[in-house]
Amino acid sequence: MQKLLSTLVVVLICVSAFQSSINAQGIFLPASGAVNRGMGGATTGAALDAIGSLYWNPATIAAFERDEIGFGFEAVYARNRISSSIMGVGAGSTSDESGAVPVPSIGWVHQTANPNIKFGFGLFGAAGYSVNMPADATNPILGPALVGRYQTDASFFQMAPSLAITMTDRLAIGFGPVINMARIFLDQNAFVPPNLPSATFPRGNGTRYHWGLGAQLGFYYIVNDAFQIGGNIKTPMWFEPFRYHSETDTGAPRVDEVSVTLPMIISLGSAYKYSPGITFAADVRYLNYNDADAFGDPAGFGPMFNVTGLGWSDVFSVHLGGQFQVTERLTWRAGYMYVTDLFPSSATFFNVGSDIGYRHAPTFGGSYRLNEFATFSFAYNYVPDWGTTGPIVAPIVGPVPGTSVTNRTDAHIATFGINIRY
After folding, report:
1. Helix-strand-coil split of the chain, %, nearest 5
2. What are the structural domains, with CATH classification, of the chain?
3. How far is CA 325 from each of CA 69, 278, 403, rounded to the nearest angstrom?
4. If we measure between CA atoms, which residue out of 418, 422, 421 comes closest to residue 105?
5. Which long-range contacts (CB under 8 A, 24 or more apart) does 139-143 make?
6. pLDDT-based confidence at residue 17 (cuts at 50, 70, 90)
7. What is the distance between the alpha carbons of residues 101 and 75, in angstroms, rounded to a whole number?
8. Overall pTM > 0.85
9. DSSP class of residue 289?
10. 8 A C-beta contact, residue 229 and residue 44
11. Cα distance between residue 294 and residue 343, in whole Å
12. For the segment 181-231, what is each residue's pLDDT rounded down to a tens digit?
């Protein structure tokens, strides 16, 4: 039983691979590109740049007056700290050394021969994760009797070809498929039954990129010269089964499959142009994790001691942003994000290393127009320290009395980009 529990702890920590680097919206980054980051992710009702529009509402590209291509790069530096205590054994805390995680983004908007139809194509690093936690004899959960060191990596990409059609002089709709590619590396795969008689889980690094497919549909409505509203729905992203090649205790080949679905997302937003140089935006977002395979499945153990799910709840988030043009070339931005709980504290053990939630996340940024065509943008997002605490959970036994595990995270996110309008 101790060996099985040790293995479960290792893999539950590695479950962090199912999440993005720093994002209380679960697997999804709350913003894409430097402009959208600077606005706190508020873009559903605002047509500000190609990347942000294609990421959250392709209908807004109907308002673009020129063709545009944007390139973005984001570096996410998150500090994860795991603390644990076992009565009679001891207590300790350890920080990982994962470094900065790169997240790329591209957005392109093109006016077709029909003036009422625009084509867009977005390519986003929707999620990515890296954990590099050292062994620590002073921290029970990372000591030689349980886990020791561990490492895991994951990457999620989305491609979003889109059409925006101007229906009237006020209303536009946007739609298109969302094509996904994802690869998840786990030190050991606790989502499948363990090998017997060793009671160890098979390796979770013998895998490839897997394809997923969904769609999105949005609208953009110009109420008047100053006020616009928008909405968008992303369907669940259905993936082919994630396949893992490993081996049994005797060395025979073993193939396992894990079902993963990304949640449906509904976004509503508005934008208000106070003056030609001042714009405010606000978004409200809902993510339906309860019905997403693996993420929303109950956090617990199955009859074969495999993990049944992460126990994530539906999430609501609020995004606020404003931009202020101070000179012909220079524009400043400020934003704020608020997010509800991703999972209850009782599920902390099943999300050790992936509890990267937050409540409040301020951001600021700006743009500098280099010439008639090119604009350079940047943003900085700080995620204050946040975490949860719960008991260590064992198969059959359940919560183990006299134990606790805590994961805390804070992060610095720097985003840079360039937009070319032609």
Report:
1. 10, 55, 35
2. 2-421 (2.40.160.60)
3. 21, 6, 54
4. 418
5. 139/82, 139/83, 139/84, 139/91, 139/92, 139/93, 139/94, 140/84, 140/85, 140/86, 140/89, 140/90, 140/91, 140/92, 141/9, 141/82, 141/84, 141/352, 141/392, 141/405, 142/82, 142/84, 142/92, 142/94
6. very low
7. 6
8. yes
9. G
10. no
11. 13
12. 999 888 888 889 999 898 888 988 899 999 999 999 999 999 999 999 999
Residue type for position 147: V
Question: Which residue bears the tokens 């809902």?
Answer: 286
Rounded Cα–Cα distance for residues 300 and 395 (Å):
8
326's tokens: 């101070």
- Cα separation, 218 vs 282, whole angstroms: 16
Tokens representing 340? 């509800």
Helix H or strand E encompassing 50: helix 50-56
Whether the CB-CB separation of 174 and 62 falls below 8 Å is answered with yes
Paired residues of 183 in beta bridges = 155
Q: H or E element: which one contains 314? A: none
Q: The tokens of 179 are what?
A: 């094509």
Q: Residue 396 belongs to what H/E stretch? A: none
Stretch 112-122: mean pLDDT: 97
| 268 contact partners, CB below 8 Å, separation of at least 6 | 44, 45, 229, 230, 231, 283, 284, 285
